Amino acid sequence: MTRRFVALAVLAVVCAGVELVAGRGMSPGVVWDVVNGGGDATERHIFFQLRLPRLLVSLGAGACLAVAGLVLQSALRNPLAGPEVTGVTPGAVLGAVTATALGLAGWDSPLAVVLAACTGGCAGAALLWLLAGRGRGDPAQTAVHGVLVSAVLGGLTAMVLLVEPGELGSVVQWLVGTTEGRVWQHWHLLWPWALLWGAAAWLLAGPLTLLRCGDDIALTAGLSVRPARTLAVLCAVALTAGAVAAVGALGFVGLLVPHLAVAVFGADLRVSLPGAALVGAVVVCGADAAAQLSSRLPAPGLDSGRFTLPVGALTACLGAALLLVVVRRTPSRTF
């Protein structure tokens, strides 16, 4: 396990280094000069005020989404559970977009965005919980109801445009997910939120392990199932809301990264939860680096000064392909 953590940590450092030199406006040589204390004022501003906080936000958001997904899959005993398909992410997006459209929140007030996103995420999870009813333990039924809830919440988000069409740019950022333009204010808000709820998730590792074994075994072990599951879902919603408030909806990160983390670190959540955080950070950081490199090498005929590939678009495309592989290889997998 130690070697696996060290290997992932090294991979995270590599991805971070690639992301720092992948953006436009500065060559890798200039970035190296700035790191060594050189460069002019503009270059130092780009590196320290734009690239570095963007890197940290991508790492933090990826860790939050991965831990949230693993907590949800363990609490609901559903390998298809995740922030994207349980109403949490679309609900958080709806909350953030609505608050922004009403003038209650915005990029200049990230704390209000987090609160609005958390409220929306709780509402989305509650709606799924009500619709699933007695079949909430069935992975297939939960996934179907999750798609329905996501569609409804997505439709409500689109309706915001009818009221505030000027919010189109903001809505697109929330729906697709991007790390573009993230500054230190986003990071200063994200890291204590992620640390608080990440620690709470780790403290719930024991109850979550029992919940993975089934309600009957958990009750036999003396666990109060409903309060434990409620706390776990609340923790997952809070982590998702923090990530959504920082970068928007990054598709499939919270759904697929937990499977990879469990495959690498095993079913012991005391180990796999921090492992999932590290894997999620690597995935989002690597995807953001790839997106920036792709933006520097646009297809012929595109204006390279305007072409920008959002990291959320890349994670959605890759995640959809990986989800098909997971479903085809383990069609009847349950916890």
From TrEMBL:
InterPro entries: ABC_BtuC-like (IPR037294), ABC_transptr_permease_BtuC (IPR000522). The keyword Mitochondrion does not apply. It is found in: Cell membrane. It holds the Pfam family FecCD. It is a multi-pass membrane protein. CDD domains: TM_ABC_iron-siderophores_like. Belongs to the binding-protein-dependent transport system permease family. FecCD subfamily. This is Iron ABC transporter permease. It comes from Streptomyces violaceochromogenes.
